[in-house]
Design a protein that fits this description.
Layout: H1 27-46, H2 54-68, E1 92-93, E2 103-104, H3 108-131, H4 138-161, H5 178-202, H6 207-227, H7 233-258, H8 263-278, H9 292-295, H10 297-316, H11 352-356, E3 372-373
Antiparallel strand pairs: 1-2, 2-3
Helix pairs in contact: 1-2, 2-3, 3-4, 4-5, 5-6, 6-7, 7-8, 7-10
Protein name: BRO1 domain-containing protein
Length: 402
Amino acid sequence: MAHWFHRNPLKATDFLKYDLKGVLRNEQSSKICGELRLRRDKFLKHLESASSDLEQVELEFNQYLALFYGFLFDVTDETEKESKLRNLIRPTWGNSMIEKEGIELSDSWFEALSIMYNMAIWYMKHAASVSAKDEVRDGEAKIIHTCLKKAAGVFDYIKAKTDMLCGLDDFPGNDFNMNMIKAYMNQCIAEAQEVTIARAIELKHAAGLISKLATETARIYNECDKMIEKFNPAIFEKWRKYFQLKNKFYLAYAYAYLGESLLAEDKCGQALCGKYAKSSGPGFIAKPENHLFFRRIKPLLERHMEKAERENGFIYHDPVPEVCPELIDNASFGLAKPEAYAFPKKSDAWTISAYQSFDIGRADTPDFGKAKKSKTKLPIVKEEKVYQTDKDPRNESGCSIM
């Protein structure tokens, strides 16, 4: 596939014991905590491979959150009233970018939203894994598109809930910073639109439509770049270069399919490519200037330029304008939208008697303060490297979508 995706690391976390022995009054509550501990560990292990089975990962994700339900919501109330257990656990989580800083917070929503965050990042990684195959066919392209929209939907859900977490503003560049969440969500939307653009090219849709889609995609990447521009450049530079590159790529596509070409943009892209490979920040090292995605742009621009010059020389004899026509940015067809995420229904294990068997009167007084830097050094998640094909696909856009 002619797509190239930058991916940040998964969030690291410490083992969560669910050690609430003084609170657990019977076997029901003990079983819930024991199963949560096992399900969490199993789910996080599956995330280490971007090629893990999609249905299995989604199943384990939903099962864990369904079993975690009672720590967030009062199961005796139908209105999703806050659970009496919300502050009983104190999870420790790292961040996808500021990897070495673990944060701890006595809030079950911190655990739930962090688990969701990792699921959304895994959706992105799974999409990249599928796109890295030698040939990507129709069904696989749909998986890529769907995974990216699902990831955007999860980030959108997190965005709506993140104000519930206290004290995270003390950690610049943490995953729950609103600009971070928006950058991830918009990245997913833009990448999903890349798949739509590839499909439009393969099916030879109207050039104006492709130009509008490319213009909108370039605009989103530019927004992503601006959202993270104030964070530490030593950490965020590589991610920013990715956004800048994609912005230039799709501006070039937009102009090419508008009937004009900006070869100067190609030169700008070359300069940025070199900077990306040498820039600092998390993520696997890539050399985009050697990637098919980049190598296809120059021939595309040259073909459009040669055709325009040839047709004008033989037929139209129009004067060449000094200023390039403005891009049209009112695309309405083919725009990607987040696939709405809904929290799973509670597990059958959460009966009223099971909920009542958690005796919070016997619990140690929780730390109701804001988030703090953890003294525990979190191990980096041992992720499997995603295979990248070195074969050039045999079609125009680099992917096969019917």
